[in-house]
# Entry
Amino acid sequence: MVDQPLPGETILPDGAIIETVPPAPSSLKAFWSAFSENRGAVLGLAVVLFIAFLALFAPLVAPHSPIEQFRASVQQPPVWAGGTWAFPFGTDAVGRDILSRLIYGARISLGIGLSVMIVSVALGIVLGLASAFLRGIVEVVVMRIMDLIVAIPSLVLAILVVAVLGPSLVNTIVAVTVVYLPRYVRLVRAAAMAELSKEYVVAARVAGVGRIRLMFVTVLPNCLAPLIVQAALGISDAILEAAALGFLGLGAQPPIPEWGAMLADSREFIRAAPWIVTLPGLAILITVVAINLMGDGLRDALDPKLRRS
Amino acid sequence: MFRFFIRRVALTLPTFVALMFVTFVAVRLVPGDPIEARTGERGIAPERLAMLRHELGLDRPVWQQFLDYANGIVHGDFGVSIVTKTPVLSEFATLFPATLELTLCGLAFAIVLGIPAGVIAAVKRGSVFDHTMMTIALTGYSMPIFWWGLLLIMFMSEYLGLTPVSGRMDLINFYFEPVTGFMLVDSLLSDQEGAFSSAVSHLILPAIVLGTVPLAVIARMTRSSMLEVLGEDYVRTARAKGLSPFRVVGLHALRNALIPVVTVIGLQTGTLLGGAVLTETIFAWPGVGKWLIESIARRDYPALQGGIMLITSIVILVNLIVDLTYVAINPRIRHG
# Structure
């Protein structure tokens, strides 16, 4: 019998047919046309790209150093409230330029969001696939631990982790990663289990594809759509959680210009210098809204099952 | 049905044991000896140190310490605060009504506004109202609530002078013994003129702040669940029968649409208690959230350990109740 490979199959030199990566459900172009249908998502993407640009080129874009204290211009109002263009967004209580701190803060917040996302997605894939494929004791242990993590209120768990490890930027990332790990593990496991019963997986098994290859090459690509959506939305959650820790004094430590930490001591300036309170929070809100808009668009484009009507 | 109940209850036990284990291990991972942390820099005589360690059982094998800890928790002993020297459980019990009152009011705020907003948005799908509602919901969902609280204080309290900035009650003008622990109820019971309105004005901003994220979640969930139900055959039948739109939406559709919403509301407990930590810190609300943060600052690890244990137990319990209610009201799950 002469074999013609079906879509998604490869014929090995010895004649065995194996299932390789199935064709992507839609090309990049199709994806973009679905994504750009949602105007909010495109707006979100534009804002995210802009903030990412600021974060990446912070030293070039920011007018001042984020930690330099201009003693002569303490608590100077922003330019629209009678300030000067030297400090467009005004200065804080010790005379640091708020605009520069916000721009450098974008590095911190996006950095935290991305690190948490990458680490938790990677761990989520490994643990999720392991529990779906190995079942038995591995699955029980992993899933019970995830149940436990989910049971503890996220901020309370993050507080516990930071209390043990000590407050710092890196420990913030560790704490938030722990908090958000279960959603990826559960998602990958559920998606992989749904795939496992499908015929192409059975075929690949019969063809003798090794377990590791089966996990990461055959099954994983088919679980990616919901994972990408969750990962995008996970960035914004991580940013919020990290900012909350910073606000409580348990995250990034001064003088790091983390947005949440910038708000921590702002309360006493509510009367005297409201811009110190307003601007960092606005930066958090805009970033998180933009990422969520983008994530909603991704979901609509990638995962029609989850599409919000 | 009964078997499902037993099974579901039994499944929470390992989680509970694991929680004990985690809190136990976490506190032991904290650098520094708890006794030395207590005595400070003055130091302590070796024999006195040994005595204190013995008193606290710290010289016993770790597994025995864990069993003691677990045994204590089962018998309601959550340790003793290092700072105040009172049992953690009784400290928690004094502060918890404040958190519960705040949480319930925040949740009520979210439900009372969220469900109608979601229903109207679904019925008027694609309208200006729908778009506005969903934009507000997205913003609420993305809101850093600690900043939201500061903004509200800035405008409502400092600028407009409408509400007090912190606390639960105007303690200069009013004093009464706590009866229920709920300021709203106690102020009414005290029969002092103005006490109730003082309680309300203290509560309103924190409740709004805490209710904001659940409000957004509930509104979004109600809308999508309602949209799904409105497309069902029985809704069309109800319309075809000539029922008024109000009856169709309010009676036939809403009842079924609310099932997933009720679950989502139940699952907000964790969000609410986590949010309470932030809200209480901003508004100096004397509840368990603020107490937890202060325990960290004071290095009061038994309080932190017991507090997390208690808060999480409450969340586990509420989630269990939500699950069981869900099964009780939705036979499709039970037999599925």
